[in-house]
Write a structure and sequence with these properties.
five-stranded mixed beta sheet; 555 residues; nine-stranded mixed beta sheet; homodimer; 18 helices; elongated; alpha+beta
């Protein structure tokens, strides 16, 4: 609930501005910057106490100019490599990656981010990572995963401002409790009164969503109203604490706010816990634990009865979730109880990611209401499934170590040619186009439908040995390596190596459904390290089908 | 090239800080705020001289509290209406819309924005519209249209910071020429030196893209590198000039920057002009004119020879576009020639939307290079197809007047029930679910694939006369009105009214392909105004197929 606080500490402690016995003392944050007001956005930076110390010990592999984390310049220019799906040339400078000057850290997301060309940092904007195309691709796929589920869970996306005047922050309570963590904004030359207004960059989306709720009268029949928002958020973390994607000043949340009646809370919590389970299962992260933080012992708002009803609903929902859960007595926020979801990663570290917080206060501050037979003030539920997308990406980067699931991967398939005959090159080029975007050549100037499948397909047509090209492709961790030689041109078939694809069992099931018993003899000759999936021989249509099925199954 | 400048005036004039004979004098902007430096972002606000005076005369229909443009509160609460695809209840308070207190302005996007619940404004953030769910839906569909085409045109999306330090803006030249139009940002309490740095909110994406280009050495084989970015941009327009979606402080561009060798410029321009044509045809806007602005007579950078080569390439590309074009001699930016695309809307007004600008200067300022046999400095092409998405939405709102094409529409289909029998209600509910998201009920806790079709389906199950419900649905301009009574339950069919769907001819073609000669007798009885497409009777599968085909054809 509070930024950078150790997990044992309570929201209540920050409210009182002191720490209790057993709480890890703060090392970095100035006491004035400990906010009272919280929301689903708050846990974003929270568990960096856990991740922080580790990554800070790691020296980023090769810093580029301007303080970036970017990959080193390639020493050698490849003969001809081109990304067909994205129209870029893609130097496969494998020798550098295969034999780095220093052994790559296999855990740190910053070193991996540089190695995989996912993001850089720059001294002109500390704490605001710049996502390179491959990093932006993963970021957007995570967004898309949530967006695809939003209609089923009743969320509607909205777009809200980045800047609000001081008055709004006073109304929301951020000004008193969060001011120092916000970036202050001022217009340029003051041409009129309005330009003199003080603005702040939003650290959270909740006030904007309250404005949208309030933009017209609401009936109880409309509730629950569920707004989702992926807007960029800014929090002025101290520069010394900034690190990679985990400790940042600019980040994006899969933020959501639910406005509902008090008796709808239980169902909303059940639904949100289902959403968490769905997304975490899909991303194959976990296991995770659930914690219920209850009414603070001393300072809180609202009657005991209201708290009891709310906590009972949360307990009911937790019982229905099928997960075990535990209570953190007295650790709720002063404005309402909450559920924390703590994820354990593959390396055994715990991260607080998702959060579900009940808020009785903000709707009152904004005078939100609903009318009907029993008019009332809605309860506001702050919730995030992934939390900070940047931070969740860091977790995924360290989990997958570049072996992204096919659907999420920026390097889905690469085509390697054997020999330099014109037929092979022509056939390989045609296959690259068809695999990247299966459309007829006569499609012409018609726009591609929004739902049209697109895949990230690269090629390596250099005049090198297949072994060398294969080593390069494997170092870059392409999910599928497709080999095309003269036999493939004659047989109209593709030799495919799936050895970098995670989720072997499920992938094999799909391969067996598409073409039972398919095997590629080439695998035996060329394979450097086969991780369980033998090479297969498929035609173009079968390959497209496998790619489609991998995406639809989130493999 | 300059903000708020009349179209006749030249970039060169602003460079010199004076206006020439015939140029409309500035009314609003302080001379200190006229920037020299420009880019594809600049024309965003440009043509508001044309749109501005009109919309400013129009009194916004019903201002909500807090200075919003929001719709008025509904007086009556409906019995039961629910949006199945988005899980919201949706009061169909048709009497208010059908009989407004004041006749709605049929042209102004602000009045339409309120009537159609697309966006609101708020005094806490002037010039930063808050998009309601339906407005956000349209915004995101426009984004999706461009994103779906990006791979074909070789663009790769990136994500870049909102804040940069003063140093970067000095390097880019914005500090000297654009400072007053930028929002100045400062960290809260200064805990260390870095927090004392002066930041500005970015008004353009170009510097961030230069940082990404520079993050590693580039080979000539990698070029062209094409970055796309939808980030929120901020420009500190004077508050008195702010208006709806056309004159804003926060906006989003479909921004793109191409880094290429000098001899690739021609092909890139040809490709960009094709992109413009593709998107404008898809959105059914136009016609549009092309203008080539050439080397300024006095102040410019670069040799005459470089300019000539660049202009010749632009002329070649324009000749290949198949459009007529004209020259604006001496009206290029001081750093390079450019092509302006001027769109004529249905009401005969002209808008500068897309822009393609060559830039020889920024790559030099950032020290960008490419290596190879002939190393050099890349040419940077700033380009935007829609320009400001907000402003383009204003244009589309006024063009379609709520009759959105099906693929873009936030109100795609509504189901009206006849009678109150349990069978009818059950069948209508089932149809609503199936039409909103065609999945088997047994799908359970599996995530929906990213490509899964979703439609915006609302329902009106109130115990009202069909005529009244139909009037409500027509007032809300649903593309398809689906009527379900007892006959439909027995016959497992849907009576569909397509009369609000634009592009009648193309829609009829699709209907005839799905079910030749389909007619609904109900249309004759219930229709209030049939605009050309007669009612049809289809089963569930046929209806789903029609919806899919309408989306895929951008109808």
């Amino acid at each position: 609930m509070t930024r950078a606080s150790p997990m044992r500490s309570t929201s209540h402690q920050w409210l009182l501005g002191k720490s209790t016995t057993g709480a890890v003392p703060l090392k970095v944050l100035h006491p004035s910057r400990l906010p009272r007001r919280s929301c689903s956005c708050t846990p974003v930076q929270r568990e960096q106490q856990e991740l922080g110390p580790k990554v800070q010990q790691v020296k980023p592999a090769r810093r580029a100019t301007r303080g970036s984390y970017g990959p080193e310049p390639p020493k050698k220019i490849p003969r001809k490599t081109q990304n067909f799906s994205r129209g870029r040339t893609n130097p496969t400078n494998t020798s550098k990656l295969a034999k780095p000057d220093t052994p790559p850290d296999t855990l740190d997301h910053r070193a991996l981010g540089a190695e995989l060309s996912l993001f850089i940092g720059d001294t002109s904007s500390p704490g605001s990572p710049l996502f390179q195309p491959d990093g932006a691709h993963i970021f957007q796929k995570l967004q898309a995963l949530l967006r695809a589920q939003y209609p089923s869970f009743g969320f509607q996306e909205v777009i809200t401002p980045n800047l609000y005047k001081e008055d709004l922050w006073r109304q929301s309570g951020h000004w008193d409790n969060y001011k120092d963590a916000m970036f202050a904004v001022k217009g340029g030359t003051a041409l009129n009164d309005d330009d003199n207004a003080r603005y702040s960059l939003k650290p959270m989306n909740c006030p904007g969503h309250c404005l949208l709720y309030k933009s017209r009268n609401r009936s109880w029949r409309e509730l629950p109203i569920r707004y989702a928002d992926f807007a960029a958020l800014h929090r002025n973390e101290v520069s010394g604490s900034l690190s990679g994607l985990t400790r940042v000043r600019r980040f994006h949340q899969d933020d959501g706010h639910i406005f509902c009646t008090p008796d709808q809370v239980r169902q909303e919590i059940i639904s949100t816990l289902k959403f968490v389970e769905l997304v975490y299962n899909t991303l194959r992260v976990g296991p995770y634990k659930l914690f219920l933080s209850t009414k603070p012992f001393h300072e809180f708002i609202g009657s005991d009865e209201t708290w009891k009803i709310a906590e009972d609903q949360l307990k009911d929902a937790l019982n229905q979730s099928g997960h075990t859960w535990s209570v953190k007595a007295g650790e709720g926020a002063f404005y309402g109880p909450k559920i924390d979801i703590v994820l354990t990663d593959k390396h055994g570290k715990e991260h607080q990611t998702a959060t579900i917080q009940l808020d009785f206060q903000l709707p009152k501050r904004f005078g939100l209401q609903y009318v009907g037979q029993e008019p009332g003030i809605p309860v506001m539920i702050h919730r995030a499934i992934l939390g900070s997308l940047e931070r969740f990406m860091a977790l995924l980067i360290e989990q997958f170590q570049g072996h992204w699931p096919f659907w999420l991967s920026p390097r889905q398939l690469t085509i390697l040619t054997v020999g330099e005959s014109a037929e092979v090159l022509a056939y390989a080029s045609e296959m690259a186009k068809q695999l990247a975007c299966p459309i007829p050549a006569t499609y012409g100037l018609k726009p591609l439908p929004l739902s049209h499948p697109r895949y990230n397909v690269d090629t390596d047509f250099r005049n090198e040995t297949l072994a060398k090209k294969l080593l390069g492709a494997k170092t870059k961790k392409y999910n599928i390596i497709c080999i095309i030689g003269e036999k493939n041109v004659k047989g109209k078939c593709l030799d495919l190596d799936f050895s970098a694809q995670p989720m072997e069992k499920e992938t094999l099931q799909i391969l067996n459904r598409v073409k039972p018993g398919a095997r590629s003899p080439r695998q035996k000759i060329i394979s450097t390290k086969v991780r369980g999936i033998p090479g297969v021989k498929l035609n173009l249509y079968e390959t497209q089908l496998v790619m489609k099925m991998l995406c639809e199954s989130y493999l």
